[in-house]
Amino acid sequence: MVLAAVLLVIVVSYVDSDDYCYNEPHCDPYAWGDTFPSCHPLLEEHHSPINLDHPITRNESLGSLHLEGFDVIQTGHWTLRNDGHSVVLQVGNGMSVSGGGLPDVYHTIQLHFHWGGPATNGSEHTMDRRRYPMEMHVVNMKSIHPNMSAALDDPTGLAVLGFFIDVVYADNVQFGHVSQKLSSVAYKGQTAKVKPFPLMSLLPKHNMSQYYRYYGSLTTPPCSPVVVWTLYEVPVYISWSQLAQFTSQIFSTEEDAEQVTPLQNNFRHIHPTFSRVVSGSKEAKLLRGMASCPLRSAVAVHLLQIILLAGFISGQ
């Protein structure tokens, strides 16, 4: 337990920095390299995120990952935190990922989210150049490393599971474990205790064999190229109101700040794949028809449906 607590503090220290932000022109992701040299996207560097597009090579050896402890309720409590850059759920110990072509066993540390604005999409990765409304990252550290510093010196020190998040009309009841706590962490620095729940309930559990694999970097400073990325093809679905809780009700500033700033568009720009191979798992559909429409188009369709329904009702 002590080791797990130390690891959580170390992880938070890397992402909780006031030296970078997303919303202001002087410190958007394109300027991170001024403060963090490793964030400069130099030629042939393995930066993330990327656009998932053809050509993609199917790898028949990439089966489902083994997610140890994801289907049970862990002991103790988890902590949800607004770090000014995202909403982070620190999950303690007891869970790990392995298999599926990963080079080792990785301990699960935390998960966090990236989103856009009220009328814009905000996933970090894109599929066929289309951006989803949100993206969730489950961060895992190679078990042989005693701390994050050691992991950041290893080209495969971290394994991140990425999940696109799309929008439907009904609430995702399981996602409520997170969304119902968001009002308690609306402002930077606020935390809330979360009763542990089976983490698998947040994931597209019937489609976990469909994913893409590539080698890249952290998408926040220090942008270290140490991540084995696993991006799942089938998205997680939440409701419009659950999405709005992120895009309109989370702030990158403290509650008592002179000017309160909404936390929006907290995603890094797309980087070239260069010579990297992007592999599809054995059961991946290889992009066919999986990308969602841009949020603005979805909003237009939603409004059109309301108008048509209103016209139908008034004609009765």
Automatic annotation (TrEMBL):
One annotated Gene Ontology cellular component of this protein: plasma membrane
Span of domain Alpha-carbonic anhydrase: 18-282
Species in which this protein is naturally found: Scomber scombrus (Atlantic mackerel)
A GO MF label: zinc ion binding
EC number: 4.2.1.1
Signal peptide: 1-17
Co-factor(s): Zn(2+)
Protein name: Carbonic anhydrase
Domain of life: Eukaryota
Keywords (A to Z) from UniProt: Glycoprotein, Lyase, Metal-binding, Signal, Zinc
Record Pfam families: Carb_anhydrase
UniProt cross-references to SUPFAM superfamilies, sorted A to Z: Carbonic anhydrase (SSF51069)
Catalytic reaction equation(s): hydrogencarbonate + H(+) = CO2 + H2O
Role played: Reversible hydration of carbon dioxide.
